[in-house]
# Entry
Amino acid sequence: MDRERRRTVFNRIMCGTAVLAIGLSGWTLWDLWDRRHTVDEACGGLVPVGEVLALSGSGGEITPARNVSDGIRPDEGPLPQDCVLRSEEVAEGRRVGQGMFFFSARVATEPTGQTSEPVDDSFENALDPGNPYVRVPRVHQPIGGGVPGHVTDIGVSVRLPCPGVEHRGEEITAVRVSAELDAAVRPEFSEDGQLRRADRDRLADIAVTTANNLAGELGCPDRLPEPPDGIPALNTEPVAPGEAEGTCAWYGRAGLDTGRANASGWLPDRVLEARADDRVWEERCLLSVSGEARGRAYERYADDPAYREFREAAAGEGRRSWWLSAESFFGDAAEQVAVDPADDERVAVPGRGGYDDGANAWWATSVCDGRPAVHVLTAGYPYSEAVGRHLEPVFRAYVEDVAERRGCTDIALPSKRDYQRGS
# Structure
């Protein structure tokens, strides 16, 4: 082949390669534009698209889950509104019974008019890692960095005060946004049953940016600061009360697990907590009894007639953990706290305290920054049948600690008689 023919063949190959590269580049650009457009369209242009597409499980085609949500359109209807997205990567690896959604965001305003309720149901085993309804014990971590919000095992929620503004003719007081990586319910898109560190940080950025964007559209005067990097994961291992420094520190300081305070032997000797942050609208402390302490209590009261009902109830419950959940709700979240998770009509009444025998829950109320607050202590069943009569000093210590930290007044606690009804 002479030099001229070789040059001609080479030029043709190069031209063909260039055309192919241009075609592939065009397809890649189109695919990227289509993915970004889908997220932007479904979520009303409020979420930072690049951050969403950098989350775990975002590979392949992105499609809106129209059967679940119509998307976010603040100008077209009342809030809250949601956008829910599927991804090809999540769908391809899905097995029967596994979640199929990739990402979701919710925007809302306060007052929400919705019922809030204690998450921990006394008939669920909140500290059992084998419980299919509880992936990790749910003690949400605050975001920190001056951002009012918290991190769950799959998402982030933030709150932005928005005084003196109306939406569709209704006065609002704040903006609320949550961003969740729904794919994190599956092990291939999570780490140790909860969000990977990079995904926690990205979801915090998404929630804050979305809240600020919504605030701009509604005319809110304030904006949230950028969230910090390296937001901690949820605590999953209980510790001794004396080691607690956050939402369970009150229990260790009061010495309720030792000495005369726990002369009965029924009170918890382990706690699971989060960092304390006065900016969050809900906080929780989980307390539990270790296996060793449970064994001592069983042996000590094996023939005591006062605990006959507990022994009968426990006989059919196997090795359920003994736990308490101390929870507090503030502001809008405290307007309608259902003290029984199974009945939204049974709510805490401002200015009063009480006991709900259907939920094994004691509740108190107070006023924090001029807004209502509700405090709830739930005892897991059948542990509730034994520990109830010993909980008055526990709940009092918890409520008084929260009130001191948050500057709350007008505390109303259950009566002493309510604790006898809990046994």
In short: DSSP finds ten helices and 16 strands in the chain. The two ends are 100 Å apart (CA to CA).
